[in-house]
Amino acid sequence: MKKKPFHIAIIMDGNGRWAQKRGKSRIIGHRYGALSLKKIINFSIKKKINILTLYAFSTENWSRPYLEVLELMKLFTFSIKNFMYELHEKNVCVNIIGDRKKLSKNLVFYINKIEFLTKNNKGLILNIAINYSGKWDLVNCVKKIYFLIKKKKIKINDINENFVNNNLCLSNLPDIDLLIRTGGEKRISNFFLWKIAYSELFFTDILWPDFSSEDFLNILNNFSKRNRRFGKIFFS
């Protein structure tokens, strides 16, 4: 692979449809999706990917059936509780991104625990978005800026792209180089709207539980052949 993306993001879509095609409940699809997630994390470690950001649950996902949401939250708690020490041993630094106000106390407890446990690790930076949306992130940023102006800590002219970026989630990390979405849909779905301004986009029909390390490698190889112009024109 000639050129490797520094920061990769994945919208993990298709768990429910994967299960329904097999006559199973949607939560079974989410459980198989969690197994796929573990496989892709291990592959990222092996390939020395620097940053992997995953969209696990959006603010819009609360509108799904109550029992599905309840089981998803239990799955998040179970996964963090049972895999945190394995991730720590593999030198992974874990960050959970999103609004925690609607999450259960038990889930927030394990989120805090895994973040504290892995915060000094120097390997793969793993960001998992739970109850996150790009619009929520931007609104939160506006509120922070308003507060700073009101307290006269900054002036209007202090606000620029860097300042906005520094008040968003993932403020300390570079922009997303490659955004992958599984499941056949071709939309962003309110995911890190600021950070994907110049991301390379890759959409695949493969449902997330079927997404393999080989599929991931094929996308990385495709990325390595792309000429990223960032709005500029290059003459040969």
Please characterize this protein's 3D structure:
- By secondary structure, this protein is an alpha/beta fold.
- The protein contains seven helices and six strands.
- The chain has a six-stranded parallel sheet.
- The relative contact order is 0.19.
- The mean pLDDT is 95.
Major sheet attributes: 6 strands, parallel
Report the order of strands and helices: EHHEHEHEHHEEH
Bin the strand percentage: 5-15%
The tally of helices reads: 7
Determine Rg (CA atoms, Å).
18 Å
Structural class: alpha/beta
Query: Portion of residues in helices?
Result: 40-55%
Terminus-to-terminus distance: 23 Å
Low-confidence residue ranges: none
Mean of residue pLDDT values: 95
Shape: globular
Strand order of the largest sheet: 3-4-2-1-5-6
Instruction: Give the beta-strand count.
Output: 6
Question: Keywords for this structure?
Answer:
236 residues, alpha/beta, six-stranded parallel sheet, 7 helices, globular
Topology:
Layout: E1 7-11, H1 15-21, H2 26-46, E2 51-58, H3 66-89, E3 93-97, H4 105-118, E4 125-132, H5 134-150, H6 161-165, E5 178-181, E6 200-203, H7 213-224
Parallel strand pairs: 1-2, 1-5, 2-4, 3-4, 5-6
Short description:
The chain is α/β, with parallel strands linked by helices.
